[in-house]
User: What shape does this take?
Amino acid sequence: MTESKLILDGARVAQAIKDELAGKVQGLTKRGITPCLVTILVGDDPASATYVRMKGNACKRLGIESRRVELDRETTTEQLLAAIRELNADPSVHGILLQHPVPHHIDERAAFEAIDLAKDVDGVTTLGFAQNAFGMAAYPSCTPAAIVAILDYYRIPIEGKHAVVVGRSPILGKPVSLMLLNRNATVTICHSKTQQLDRIVGAGDLVVAAVGKPKFIPGSWIKEGAVVLDAGYNPGNIGDVDYEACLERAGAITPVPAGVGPVTIAMLLKHTVDAAEKRTSSFES
Assistant: This one.
């Protein structure tokens, strides 16, 4: 029953993005500029450490400099802000990524806001969010950007479609909703207080799962032929949708892993390279 289904291969999309970036990185290197991404890790969460390592390895394979700033779990908000300000002032740094979540005692929003907008390659500042709302963000949040990149790569129409986004986080659910709205989709945002969630999801032509709960969306909720984009990643390599059940009804679907995740990292690399190019252009103009 699944032979006609379109599996949205994130690894393939990510490679296409990185292939395009390779030439840009080489061009910058010839001019004596190495794009640089700094990742800040606070505490010793093993999952966060794994994500940081994956991002670092992806940078190195493309010729992007990857630096890691590791801070103790006892780090205060002010100490974290000081570290971010130091990176803001470093002209060799083009992108800053604060790995989240941070320990509970830290004001995460204050830390995000401290990142220079020109180096906010993960789209976490409120100003970056506002620019995204107006369709003018230089660096939108990476996972939402990845979702749109996957749709574009496979030439899946967005305009005129009913997109249902399950989740309203400020770095995923909300920004991807705005990006789809700016592409002329009709968007419904669902959350923990939404009533008749099954009926709403069942009306979606595009369904974005961004709720952070394993197999939260069953196959019975999915409309026949709908496009399912699973942005969840839970322990055991499990997404937010019941993949096998949703596969039976969906027309196209992202797997977990190898779906949205690889493209998210590729978009982070793209934003870092773009930031390096913009900084170089501003100095040369």
About this structure: The chain is about 45% helix and 15% strand. The CA atoms of residues 13 and 263 lie 6 Å apart. The first strand starts at residue 6 and ends at 7.
